[in-house]
Amino acid sequence: MRGRGLAIVIALCMAGGLHSPGVGAADAHDITLPAETAVLKVSPLAGYQIAVQKCQICHSADYINLQPPGMSLAQWTAEVLKMKAAYGAPIDEADVKLLGIYLASTYGDATVPGAERRSTPE
Amino acid sequence: MNSGDEPDPPAPAARRVFLRQAGMALTALGGMPLLGDAATLTQPFDNGERELIAYPQKRPLLRITTRPPHLETPFAVFNEGAITPNDAFFVRYHLANIPLAVDLATYRLAVRGKVATELSLSMADLRTMASPVDVVAVNQCSGNSRGFSQPRVFGSQLGNGSMGNARWSGIPLKTVLKKAGVAAGAKQVTFNGLDTPVLPSTPDFIKALDLDVALHPDVLLAWGMNGKDIPLLNGYPLKLIVPGYFGTYWVKHLSEITVIDEPFAGHDAWFMTTGYRVPDNECNCVAPGTVPAKTTPISKLKVRSFVTSVTRNSTLKVGHRTIIRGIAFDSGSGIKKVELSSDRGHQWQEAALAKSLGPYSFREWSMPLVPTAPGPFELRVRATAVSGETQPTEAGWNPAGYARNAIESLNLVAV
Predict the structure, then answer these.
(1) What is the ipTM of this complex?
(2) pLDDT the model gives residue B38
(3) Are the beta carbons of B66 and A90 separated by less than 8 Å?
């Protein structure tokens, strides 16, 4: 059901770039979106790198940055699991766990068991 | 920074400049530059600071998310009139691959499924198929006011500005369905737009309406919004208008209508079968923090009312008459009355209703208020619909923070 058979002029806005300004004549409905400026909170936790690589495939960092403070590890982990189960995020079970830890300790409840698990320098 | 999503006077240029500089100073001082140096408004809940960013065809709006774009209307706009200007109307997408241009030479609306004749319609076809009709209707996001949920819930953290009221112009959906010829046994109609998911594993955004709703004469395929083309970010060139229903059904860049003879199911039905569902009970609510036993797709708007002419902590002069103004709406029975209370709900006084723009529209109201003694007080507003529906005193809670409609209260100060 995805635009099957429809010849549409479409420009992807992944990473807020790559807009080719109009295959047809430019009109008032040929738009360019403002730049994507939101960034995830930097962290030495392994989940940070996964978040940068995986979460931002489908959405900008402000989806995370603007969530309510104080969410628990269980809540953040459930939310990540929803991204996998409902929206098909390409993350495995280990990623879910590490993302939950990063998000809960960086954006939520500050005392997260397991947050001491740092990523190993490469 | 501004406090509250309740109305603030339009920011004068000088104030805007100050806000920009304040933001820059914060960055220079090493503050967490999550929001850059744009002007901001702060919603009255934790982590409520929002950038004001001008998107194409839009004035500066509160940016909720960048990709996909999600913009909220600053609440002060609702004091400008019953109609929400196109450039102030909220924007909400679910999937990041959105059309940034639509070429009318190639754009077609497909009508397929359980119909006698499949159709492929250009905008010119649609514009000449029937006489255009108008409906003034409120489009409100299911999650409008989600940020006020207690306890807080995940999702777009919205204040009260993810709603708007416009005059929509187009033709009835039923005109197109009748032309295609709905087959006997058809149950639902699904609606898809040009926006697509980034990954194939992500469900497409497709909504379904029961056939009787789809055939209601007020449901439109609209190209006009307040006399102009619908802005691209609101669904140009064609948007499904479902008056009285939450915005989730108002599919943008509508490109595909499919008539089905069994309940909508499968991977791409996620936004009906799992998302956008509320507890299946009268209040659409459960005990805070609990999971509903049974859910149902969110559907009709609930009656709401807001004060628009004064903001939180506004001062009113004792002994002076101040005209308090605001808006109210319901799912289409119309507004019967709007009442205000300045004594925490003990006594209510009826406001004067302004001219009706139609049963699905914002209804403006006004009432003079003369504070008799100095000090802080709380102003509450409550609407009752013609249907008899009214607003609850306490907000119901549900896991997704949908369909909030509790009585609003505003802290004011008499001096």
Answers:
(1) 0.89
(2) 79
(3) no
| Beta-ladder partners of B369 | B322
pLDDT < 70 positions in chain B: 1-37
Query: Which of B24, B32, B34, B64 to substitute to test the interface with A, most A CBs within 10 Å?
Result: B34
What pLDDT is stored for residue B35 in this prediction? 52
pLDDT of residue A10: 32
Q: Do the Cβ atoms of B176 and B257 come closer than 8 Å?
A: yes
Whether the CB of B66 is below 8 Å from some CB of chain A: the reply is: yes
**B228-229/B220-225 β-pairing:** antiparallel
Residue A66: band (very low, low, confident or very high) from pLDDT cuts 50, 70, 90: very high
pTM: predicted TM-score of the whole model, two decimal places: 0.88
Intra-chain end-to-end CA distance of chain A, in Å: 43
Give me the percent of chain B exceeding a pLDDT of 70. Answer: 91
Contact B99 A9 (CB under 8 A): yes
The label of the residue with tokens 């196109």 reads B86
Look at residue B36 in the predicted model and tell me its pLDDT: 58
Q: What is the DSSP letter of A29?
A: T
CA–CA gap between residue B96 and residue B88 (Å, rounded) = 21
B203 — contact with chain A (CB < 8 Å)?
yes
Residue of A nearest to B190 (CA): A1
The predicted-structure confidence for B191-240, as pLDDT tens digits, reads as follows: 999 999 999 999 999 999 999 999 999 999 999 999 999 999 999 999 99
Find the closest chain B residue to A91 by CA distance.
Answer: B201
Contact A63 B65 (CB under 8 A): yes
Segment 3-62 of chain B within 8 Å of chain A by CB: 32, 34, 36, 45-47, 50, 53-57
Q: In Å, how far is B363's CA from the nearest CA of chain A?
A: 31
DSSP state of A16: G
